[in-house]
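S.,

Sequence below, as promised.
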Amino acid sequence: MAIILASSLDTYTKDELGNRIAHPLEDENKIITNIKSFVKNTNRVVYIANDPKSIEENDIRVIPFFESLDQTGLKFKEKILLDKRNYKNYKEILSGADLLILSGGKCLCQNKFLRKIKLKKFLKNYNGLAIGISAGSMNLCKTVANFPEELIDLKEPRWLKGLNLFDGIIIPHFDGENVKYQYECEEVDLIHDYVLPMSNKKDFIGIPNGSYILIDNEWQTEYYGDMYKISKGKVEKFLK
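The prediction came back faster than expected:
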């Protein structure tokens, strides 16, 4: 098994009405090169939803994502979204996957779903490529820093147990040059009220959009793009 821990994958743009329009992935930091090198077959791709109950949102996310894969030259025979509608068949669905995608979204919600489908156990014998996007990457780690993005999240636990496939703790969408989150959070100051104070307890790896971590099938780790160490409330760039 190989793993890619990505902050984001640039698979679409939005039109004037806010609709997602798929476009091919660019090979930024060799992301397409690496994906194609570890995807040996294109029989089935499985996109694991963040919230299995959010059927409409899941469809909005996955349709342009699959279209982008096609446009990029990753033409899978089967494209399956795993959510509430089919999760009872998760063993059969996962067992035929050449590529697994763990969606972004809310960490705690996804964490519960990944446990429900016993993904940690499945990945022990998985031979394909698993790509985590944002929250998906965070949940693949040993420990998850579950910071809030809106007021409704404030009562959630700040630390979660992940799937233990990477020792580091990831903060996605992190603009280390300006020390801010790359998406707008209107209700909370995510970086200064949560990420930096939480780094007094544990060190984080801040990953900007476009950067990612690759763990190959020999468990060797490579970093692509800019990365930032967040420790004791301070930020330091450690890779160009």
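Residues 2-172+207-225 form a domain with the Rossmann fold fold (CATH 3.40.50.880).

Coffee later?
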